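C-alpha cells for chain A. Residues wanted.
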C-alpha cells in the first residue's frame, strides 16, 4: 500500500470543511462540547458503518469483477482531482447549513448516508488504496474502524477549536485551501499506473 498518499487522502478529506466538521463546530458554539459529543459519536458510528458497507461491496466487486478495479481507480482519481479543484476554488466563509434535528447522535449517524462527501470518500478510498493490498474481512473491518476514528478526530478538533479555528481558517483560508488541494492532487496522481 502507498501509505503517504493514502494517509494524505484520508486526513485531507476528513479534516477539510464539510457537513460533519461544520456541524460539529456550529453545535459546539451553540450547545457546548458535551452535547456536541453526542453528534460526534454519531458521525463516528455512521462513518464506520458506511466504510464497512462500502468495503464489503467493493470486495465483492473486486473478487467477482476484477476488471472493474481499473474503472474504480479512474473514477476515484477523477473524484480526488475534482475535490482538490473544488477546495482550491472555494470562497472564504462558505459554510454548510445546520439541520434542525433534535436527536444529535442519530443525526450524526444518518447524515453519513446522505452526505455526498462521506459517500464518495467511502467508495473511493477502499478500491484505490486498501483493496489492492488488503482484502480480508478482518483488515477491512480494521480500516473501517480507522476511518471512523479519523472522523471522530476531525469532528472533535473542529468542535474543540470552534471559534478560534474558525477565525484562523477565515483569515488564511485561501492559502490553506490551495495547500490542501495540492496535497489531494498529489494523492490522486500518485495512484496512476506506472
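Reply:
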Amino acid at each position: 500500500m502507498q501509505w503517504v498518499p493514502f494517509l494524505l487522502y484520508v486526513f485531507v478529506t476528513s479534516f477539510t470543511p464539510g457537513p460533519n466538521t461544520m456541524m460539529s463546530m456550529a453545535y459546539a458554539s451553540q450547545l457546548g462540547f458535551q452535547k456536541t459529543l453526542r453528534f460526534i459519536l454519531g458521525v463516528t458510528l455512521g462513518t464506520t458503518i458506511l466504510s464497512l458497507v462500502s468495503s464489503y461491496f467493493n470486495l465483492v466487486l473486486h473478487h467477482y469483477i476484477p476488471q472493474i478495479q481499473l474503472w474504480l481507480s479512474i473514477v476515484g482519481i477523477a473524484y480526488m482531482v475534482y475535490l482538490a479543484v473544488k477546495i482550491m476554488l472555494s470562497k472564504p466563509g462558505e459554510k454548510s447549513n445546520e439541520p434542525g434535528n433534535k436527536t444529535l447522535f442519530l443525526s450524526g449517524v444518518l447524515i453519513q448516508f446522505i452526505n455526498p462527501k462521506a459517500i464518495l470518500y467511502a467508495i473511493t478510498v477502499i478500491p484505490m488504496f486498501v483493496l489492492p493490498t488488503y482484502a480480508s474481512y478482518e483488515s477491512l473491518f480494521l480500516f473501517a474502524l480507522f476511518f471512523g476514528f479519523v472522523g471522530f478526530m476531525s469532528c472533535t478538533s473542529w468542535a474543540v477549536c470552534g471559534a478560534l479555528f474558525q477565525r484562523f481558517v477565515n483569515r488564511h483560508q485561501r492559502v490553506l485551501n490551495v495547500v490542501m488541494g495540492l496535497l489531494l492532487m498529489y494523492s490522486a496522481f500518485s495512484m496512476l499506473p506506472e
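Confidence is low (pLDDT under 50) at residues 95-101. The two ends are 15 Å apart (CA to CA).
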